[in-house]
Amino acid sequence: MGETADRRTYLVECYWPGVDQQKHAAASGRASEVARELRRQGHDLHFRGSILISDDETVLWLYDGVAADVRAATDRAGVECERVLESHWLDGDRHRSGERAALAPEDADDAISGRVAFFHGAARSGHTREEGRRGC
Predict the structure, then answer these.
(1) Which is deepest, 11, 44, 86, 121, by most CB within 10 Å?
(2) What one-character DSSP code corresponds to residue 56?
(3) Is 48 exposed, middle or buried (CB count within 10 Å of its CB: 0-12, 13-18, 19+)?
(4) Residue 99 Cα to chain centre, angstroms
(5) pLDDT in tens, 40-67
């Protein structure tokens, strides 16, 4: 069982030839149910959601938990994935200029230690993917 202190955010990357919105929705439903089932069993795992990138036949899944639980959840949900990456989610509504100090200390630690940044709202703000990587 995962310990809360080991809990991180993970981005799960899945190349899925032939995926469409219906298959994506069904798999997301399974992922959510598996995460709930694992929580009932005492695991600290939360499924935050997923994004379908139709043109690339790719689905990105976002979980909070322990890496082993994330891998177990994707297996049980029938999601074949290429990579499970420790990441950090920045909520575009919460992480605006001037609100950074409002982040909990553990959020700031995760922002520093995260290996992959997942920037919410970069396209909406007019920033390029490269600017997002630089943390504009």
Answers:
(1) 11
(2) G
(3) middle
(4) 22
(5) 999 999 999 999 999 999 999 999 999 9
Helix (H, G, I), strand (E, B) or coil at 52: strand
Return the residue matching tokens 């080991």. 6
Q: What is the CATH number of the domain that holds 89?
A: 3.30.70.3090
Cα separations in angstroms, 103 against 4, 46, 80, 91: 18, 20, 34, 11
Task: Determine phi and psi for 87, rounding to 5 degrees.
Answer: -145, 180
Number of domains making up the chain: 1
Single-letter amino acid, residue 128: T
Question: Is 0.70 topped by the overall pTM?
Answer: no
Name residue, tokens 């899925």.
16
Residue 72 structural domain: 4-134
pLDDT above 90 as % of the chain: 56
Contacts of 79 (CB under 8 A, 6+ apart): 12, 14, 27, 30, 31, 59, 61
Strand order in the sheet with 58-65: 46-53, 58-65, 8-15, 83-90, 116-119
**CB atoms closer than 10 angstroms to residue 37:** 14
